[in-house]
Each structure stands twice: as C-alpha cells, then as structure tokens.
Amino acid sequence: MAVRVAVLGAGSFGSCLAILCADRGHEVTLWTRDPALAETIARERRNPRYLKEIEFPASIRTSTDVQQALAGAEMVILAVPSHAVRETMAQARPWLPAEALIVSTVKGLELDTGKTMDAVLEEVLPPVHHPRLVFLSGPSFAHEVARRKPTVLTVACRQEPYAIAVQSLLSCPWFRCYSDTDVIGVEVGGALKNVIAIAVGVCDGLEMGANARAATMTRGLAEITRLGVAMGANPLTFLGLSGMGDLVLTCTGDLSRNRRVGLALGRGRSLDDVLAELGEVAEGVRTTYAACQLAERLGVEMPIAEGVRALLDGKVDPRAGATALLTRQLRGEKDWNYQRKPK
Questions:
Q1: What is the rounded distance in angstroms from the CA atom of residue 328 to the CA atom of residue 113?
Q2: What would the pLDDT profile of 230-278 be if each residue is shown by its tens digit?
Q3: Please, are residues 321 and 307 in contact by the beta-carbon 8 Å criterion?
Q4: DSSP helix/strand/coil, 278
Q5: At what angle do helices 283-298 and 210-230 cross, to 10 degrees?
Q6: Helices 318-326 & 303-312, crossing angle to 10 degrees?
Q7: What pLDDT, on a 0 to 100 scale, did the predictor assign at position 49?
Q8: What domains are defined for the chain?
Q9: Are the C-beta atoms of 272 and 264 separated by less than 8 Å?
Q10: pLDDT digits (tens, 9 = 90+) for 63-93
Q11: Which positions ≥6 away from 187 have C-beta within 8 Å?
C-alpha cells in the first residue's frame, strides 16, 4: 500500500529513508530548512552534502515549507539531530495530521534534560499524537541503506499495531523491520551505543588491540543495559538489533562518525579539530554528557561513559583514561543490581 510520506530532515539518514520510501512506491516529500539544498536536490537529484554519489528517484519532491511538506502526510519520518527535535516538532505541530504515524529515527538524548526522544515528543506534541509515536533503530549506515544493501532494524511503539504498520510500510526484500513495544530500550540502545563507539575508537586510536576493543564493547553493553533497565526497559532488548546489533556496527564500522571521533582523540587530536573536520553531527558527544547526568540522577554506575566525558572535557588524556578504567576496584562480572522501573 502506497502512502504519502513527509521526511523531516535532509541529512544522510533522512535522505536514505526518502530514497527507500520512494523505492517502496510511496509519495515522498523531503523537507529541509535550507532553500539552496532543496533546490539542488530537486535539480540535480543528488544531495551535495550527504550521499553525494547516490541518485535520488525522480518522484521525491523537496520543500522548505513544513506546512506544505506535511499536507496529507500519512507517515512522518523525523530525521534531524537530537538537539533539533524539540524546535523542529514545535514548528511542525500545527500542521501534523492527527492520524499520521510519526517515526523518529533520532539516536540521542536531549542534552539539557537527559530525556529520550519519546519523552521530548510527548512534551512537544498534543496527546492525540502520542499513541502513534514510533521509533526506528538498529544497525544502519545511511550510505548502505541508500545503496540498497541488506539492512535489518527494529521499529518500536507502545501501541504494537502502529509498529506493525510502519514495519509493513518500510520493509522490502533488502530492508527488513522487526516490531517491538519496548520504546525505552530501543531508544536507550540507539543513543548510548554512540558513547561506547567513541570509547572503542579511542582504544583503536591508541592501538590497544582487538582484546581491548571487545572488552570495551562488552562492558559498554553492560552500562547501556544498567541505565536502560533503571529507566524501565526490558534487558533482553539490549541483546537485539537496537542494542548489541547497533553497538557492533557503530564500534567497528569505518563509516561510524562516533568511532572516527574516538580514533582521532586516541591519536592525540583535539575535539574541536575533529568535529570541524567531520562536518556532520556525532551524536555521541552530546549524548555522553546527557547520559552521565541521567546516570547520576538514577544512581547508575557508568565508568566508560564517565571516562569518555572526562576525555571530552580535557580532564584526562586518552591513555591515562584507559589505565584508570583498567585499574578500578576488582569485582565480579555480574556485581550490579538492576530493577526495572515500574511502568
């Protein structure tokens, strides 16, 4: 079934999902704030900033008018950086069709509040939209999605029928979605893996070896799980696509922006230089601060995330930070309590 889709955000992931939806036969409008970018995509059928080598289907329309982009939309895909979600959706709110499925692809926590994107969206949007808030996450580099390489993700919604609806609208022979109802787990896994990817990148930048990489990923997954469970997530979610799956990809893939930040820091470069050269948002930097503040409020121990924060703040050099983690008080591997937050 073909539907009308509005994609809010013309970055790499918004662009690749616009391509996917057009391939699925949906009527797609890609919204961006930048008139020059919208005009260039419409004229050249390419995004000159992201996915430069990928040709856009002729059916994709571009717009800088959010009212126009949302007119009649049956599915709205939100693909902006986490720090832009509140502003973007406040702008979109008057024009969102009441029956539209709202699909967030944002992997991050709000810096000032530590809130997940579902909490932010529930604050910004009226209650009529809350049941249809759906969250897409999992191991997915935009360049590979745009090239139609096999990709498997999770779509989560507290109202399972809406997750299944999005699953049906997006899935195709090379893009498979699994449905879930654990919104918190899917969001926390997608956000926190970026923090661990910075830590893994630092290990690799220091040439500490494959053993250190595997250990950092494994202990990082334990930290993610502790925080997620304290927030009410199902611990099994973190063994799935939006947990371990996304963590493995982001920590080991050369296309990972957060891994590249860590690599450069491990090789002695400054954070400002790294981010300037990157030219794209590395969500893990902001999420590190938000996650550490959230963990402190909840009483959750996250030594790797704390180490990344100290490194980003310039309070410790990479090798000293790694040594500090390795020389912490010895303990049992499962020496941590978790209790799921009552729903």
A1: 29
A2: 999 999 999 999 999 999 999 999 899 999 999 999 999 998 888 888 7
A3: yes
A4: helix
A5: 50
A6: 160
A7: 86
A8: 4-181 (3.40.50.720), 184-326 (1.10.1040.10)
A9: no
A10: 999 999 999 999 999 999 999 999 999 999 9
A11: 116, 117, 118, 135, 137, 156
Q: How much is the mean pLDDT over the chain?
A: 94
C-alpha 21/C-alpha 172 separation (Å) is 10
Helix H or strand E encompassing 133: strand 133-137
Give me the active site residues, please. 193
The answer for 51, left when phi > 0, alpha when psi is -120 to 50, beta otherwise, is left
Secondary element (H or E) of residue 176: strand 175-180
Q: What is the pLDDT of residue 338?
A: 60
Locate 295 and state its tokens: 């963990």
CA distance 127 to 146: 34
The string of DSSP letters for 297-339 reads: HHT---HHHHHHHHHHTTSS-HHHHHHHHHTSPP--TT-----
